[in-house]
Design goal:
heterodimer; A: alpha/beta; five-stranded mixed β-sheet; 18 helices; globular; B: alpha+beta; elongated
Amino acid sequence: MGYPHQPHQRETTVLSRYFGDAEARTLAGWKNRGGYQALEKALAMAPADIVNVVKESGLRGRGGAGFPTGMKWSFMKPGDGKPHYLCCNADESEPGTFKDRELMRWTPHALVEGCAIGAYAIGAETAYIYIRGEFTEPLHWMNEAVKEAYAAGIIGRNAMGTGKRIDVHVHKGAGAYICGEETALMNSLEGRRGNPRIKPPFPAVSGVFGMPTTINNVETLIAAIPILMNGADWYRKMSLSNPKSTGTKLYSVCGNIERPGTYEVVMGFPFRDFLYDVCGGPLPGRKFKAVIPGGVSVPIQSMEEAEATLMDYEGFVAQGSMLGSGGVILIDDAQSMVAVIARIARFFAHESCAQCTQCREGTAWTTKILERIRDGQGTTEDLDTLLDIAEQMTGKTICVLSDSCATPVVSGIKKFGREFEALIQGRTYVSVMEAVA
Amino acid sequence: MPPAPETMGGPESPDYASHDHAAHAPYEPVFVAGSASRRELDELIPRYPQKMAALLPALWIVQRERGWVSNEGMAEVAALLELTPAYVKGVVTFYTMYHQHPVGKYFIQVCTTSPCGICGAEDVVKAFVRHTNTGELGVTSADGRFTVIEVECLGACGFATPVMINEEFIESVTPAKVPNILAALK
């Protein structure tokens, strides 16, 4: 639902149904709402059958990359004699994204259940939920839920009396955006600096503690619950556009918009209706100028692109961006695009782990130039320099933080170049907007 | 001659390390045998196949008990987890949430990353600095009560501007709300 607002009639609330319902947080409340039935069902199935159901549902990773979940699970080879691990990525730190925060603080038992199902499906006896340290409220509710689930015998040595062992542990991060990158998360969990690792080896071969590991986003794991309860066909049919994008998706909506919040719609929903109808449109007297639809790492969309978008993995790509993490940031006509992009670059400069030269130097250098342009001190060569640095930062580093910093710069210059040029020529962006109007 | 290439100095984060904290009290170990903290750590270690994985949780306990993570605290954790103090320091310095110096009784973090930035977060920061009498970011007020810093994305962008005061998370803060928020702190 459009928490903290009333659900909109055009939403399809599967995962967000209990947002704002404090009773759903407790074990008793969760069970009253049908909780842990999916786990009970899963534990009676063969792990390979669970993987097949998830494969057939078309569920894809909700953390940003959109990799098919069932296929990811199938990379975990049973009977290899090694301990397997499930890591739940709850380090949600992509600016603009706060859907996992709502999932964890309103339905913590759903994540315990999703983790237990995922762990059993991949042959793991242990699941770690890595939650960013700033999420004090989600951490509190997750710790309570895990404690309750252990006390009730739902997880532990003898999960739901089936003789199967499933441990779920909450691990608190300590402030580092990069720990949302899966290999950095594993390093951090092991008690190391959160530097990303070179792939291969991929986590399914050598992950956390050197053992086969699967890493899934919070929303992905929770989505396994309704899939098991209602079947793969039911899930696959929730698709309004491309059949490769199925189910519902949570979007965190923020920035200059009338009703910011967390919304859930079926894949393929028209972005135009979403922004202007479901989320209430721009603030009074304002117009949208741009939208970043999937967290600050994805290309910025012009409103023309956004209004032509169908909201699924392919739909955002077709209109010059990506679905990413579903963190939708609206930027209105009162904002300077240069200032917005400079602030994004500063974020990446702060969060670079400094392992790769292109990223360590590139993010800082980009920030310096952008802030110079913002402050009216830019030169005509600066735009070329920015694009040149961006090219050197793309596809050349261990992880994609470097690429993520280059992306808004390149798309911003391409789509809003006039604002950059105006500032360089000593005018403000406002005078450009007036000239356009 | 073309102009010299741009030098690559990074944007600097506020340095709340800069004042003199030499006068702090001698270190008291946190994980004394029989203490609640020691029991907590002993329960944590078996959750992981390697002892080292208990490092972040152990550092969190030190910070909870002592308010910050000193070199002595790092050495204590290192000995318990069979690591070197230098290794532990390397880990501590990677993460922004471990305080490597004492901070005010109330550590106030205001999110100013882009989504909050375009909703007026800068004005919230200014209001906190003004009403806490800290004068500037990263500096502890003379009475030792407050330290205010800007923080990167707190992950509550729909509730701009989110502010964390110690472990408490406050949503939708505006400059007008700041005096009341501060007055509610004991």
